[in-house]
Structure formats: C-alpha cells, structure tokens
Amino acid sequence: MSQNFMRHVYGWLLLTPAAILLITFTHYPTIATVINSLFSKGTLIRPSRFVGLANYKMMIEDPIFWKVLSNNAWFAIGTIPTSIILAIVMALLVNRAIPFRFLVRMAFFTPTILPMIAVANIWLFFYTPDIGLIDQIASFFGIGGHNWLGNPATALPSIIIMTIWKEAGFFMIFYLAALQNIPPELEEAARLEGSTRWYYFRRVLFPLLMPTTLFVIINAVLNSFKLIDHLFVLTKGGPDNASNLLLYYIFESAFSFFDTNYAAALTVVLLGLLAVMALMQFYILDKRVHYR
C-alpha cells in the first residue's frame, strides 16, 4: 500500500469517532424528526400513517402556535439586546482596576453557574404574591402585592427579566476575554489624540469586539429558543399561554398531549427558524466584523 493511501486511512480513522457521534446525535435525529412530522398520531387502535404535510397545515391553523411564536419573538427581542448591552457594560467595569475586582467578577458570573431549576426556584420566591421579595420591598413604599406570574400582562416580562439576570454574566466572560486581548496602547493613543471615552469605545473598541459580538448573538438567539426548565417551574406556559414559548410547546405536545408527530413538525419549524436566523447573522453581521 502506498504512503498516500495509508495517510487517508489514518485520517478517516481519526475522524470516525467524531463522525459517529455527529451522525448518531445530530444527523439521524434530524432526519427522523422530518420523517415523523409527515405521519399522523398513532394509537393502540389506529396505527400511525403517512399524511404528508397535514401536520404543517394543522400548525398553520393552530392559534396557540402563532401565540407561542409571537411570545418567542418578544422574548428574543427582550432578552438578546439587553443581555448583550449589560454584558459589555459589566466587562468594561471589571476590566478596570477597581477595588475588590475579583469579588465583582464573581458576583456577575455567579448566576451563570447556578442550575436552571435552582434559578427558577429563586425567582419563584421573588415573584410570589404578597410574601415574595419584590412585593415585600414594594410594601415599604405602600404598593400592594401583584401576581407577577399569574397575570398575562406580566408573566412573560417576568421570565425575560430572570433570563437576562442569568445570561448577562455568561456573555460578560467572552467580552472580558476579548477586552484583555486588545492592546492598551490603543486607548493611550486615543487619549493623546483627545478622544473621549465614548468616542474611543464607538470607533475603536466596539469594532474590535465585533467577532465576539457575532459569537454572543448567535448563542443568545439559540438560548432564546431553548428555554424550558424555567417555564416548567414558574408558569408551565400560563396563564392562558401568555408565557408559553416554542420549545415548551413542543415539550407539551410530545409529553403532555402525546402527539409526537405534531411535536416533530413543530421541531422542524424551530430548526428552520434557527437556521435562517443563523445564516442572516453570518451574512449581515459578518460584513461588520473586523478581524485583527
């Protein structure tokens, strides 16, 4: 056997473990989900049968689906920009020589390392009517109690606030790492030129952070469509689907209503939305990314 052939064999052997994992846990489940979405719900009496796009037609006619999709859009709009802005502000703060800087960093990052169920239970205590921390503080100012998670007008905003609290510290770590790789001479040169801090941030610092921002935005979009643990503990999508999100609706359809085929159709739509948004981010934001 030639040396070139042995190199190819050796290369494929090195790739085989990763390829097996990728096919088993990514490609096969995706293909199986698409196939299952084309079949009807099966029962002990009536087996599942091929129905084509019937599940997708039912989805279009499903008012809960559109409500959930709208909720997810508002959830993404509420969490993504705010989390990123807070992450940048926190990273700029802890990147400077401030007293007890390591404690401030730890305080900002602590929500990230907490388990999701633990975070949900902490905020459940905050939001509990009358006896919760928020209503206890409000009572000092003469403000009456409010059912934050039981009111359709405040249920989703309450989930948004909790998500921002948990995710901002996670994104801060990436911005902090990026800031520490930027040469300090750039800021010194900008000061010598008479630039203000805002001008330096807008014209020098933020463009250099754009590769990190692109990475963070992609992760933030993915996170905004995969929230389920917090909803399970806090609201279970209620009241009246006011806080229901797409992934939790998929979970409900599959494990509460036992309609796995309709859940598969919803999953296909979710994967399609994420793919389209990822491509848009790469093609639109990539033009603004300045690599060093």
UniProtKB/TrEMBL annotation:
The keyword Hydrolase appears for this protein: no
Pfam families assigned to the protein according to its UniProt record, in alphabetical order: BPD_transp_1
Record GO biological process: transmembrane transport
Residue span(s) of domain ABC transmembrane type-1: 69-279
Cellular component GO terms, alphabetical: plasma membrane
PROSITE patterns, alphabetized: ABC_TM1 (PS50928)
Bilayer-crossing regions: 12-39, 73-94, 106-126, 155-179, 200-222, 262-285
Protein name (database record): ABC transmembrane type-1 domain-containing protein
Organism name: marine sediment metagenome
